[in-house]
Queue: 2 jobs
Job 1
Amino acid sequence: MPANLCITPDLGKEDMDPEVSTRMIILSSKANVSESEVVNFLHMLNLPLTIKWTCYGAMISGKDKYVKQAIKELRKLDPYGIFTKERGFAPGDPRRCRGHRYGPREGFHQMEKEFRILDYVGEALRNPREVEIEKKEPVSVDYFKEALESSLKEESNNSSDENKSEDDKE
């Protein structure tokens, strides 16, 4: 297997350009569009972007203004099923590309966890409601000291009981 499977192995200029951003487009399991529809739609926008089809949706990279424009148009297809996330590396970057690393990239398992809750996030966006967050008071220093002393005393008693039972065995 060739060691260099990335699209653009020399990312020097684009990688250092502060105007270039990369976003992952992640589809929830209940999304009304497929990965192929997302990629085709992005191509039809005819924007100067690098578009990569992925197992979770797509990845786009280019000048920030074009990336934001593409995301804005894309989210119109399914505002509750299409999510985006900033990615610090361009598609095919040898530091993150699976083709170079031969295995899942860092962050994949985090994204896998996030993917599991996207349906709930979409539902909350679709049906917003008022919630109240109960602010809990911090534990007082006196209570903390009391709990600590009690715990230490209990631990001390348990260890002395164990020592007594060992002495009884001898």
Job 2
Amino acid sequence: MTKEKLKEKLKGAMYAQRTLEGELDKLQELRSIAQKVTPAYSQSPGGGSGNAQKLENSIAKIIEQEKIIAECCNELCSQLAEVRALVALLPMGPMRLVMQRRYLNYQKWERIAAELNYTWQHVHKLHAKGLNSILERCDRMRG
């Protein structure tokens, strides 16, 4: 595995999380629209059926969106498990902590540096060392 491929694998959970957040936003929009659609009741034959149809369509869209969200949740869980397994290849310590915060907590480099009381450059050195260490462990396990 190359370093670039490893980085993409490590970023997989973050991408899955962002996808899930987008789908949750869509669900919220659909629910908001559905709340605005109210059935109109009429005693005349066929009266008010247009709004009832709109409400039914809105509910169907919400159900479909909830299925998409369930798929996104499954993907996120899968990605998180893969990232956790890769980070777990590192020994406990600052290098592992940097990798956890970056790829499991989705923290920005500046925040990681500030919270760990390291310079931005030192965080990047630990990250590079972590990537190399994971690659070495993966190579040893394969061969």
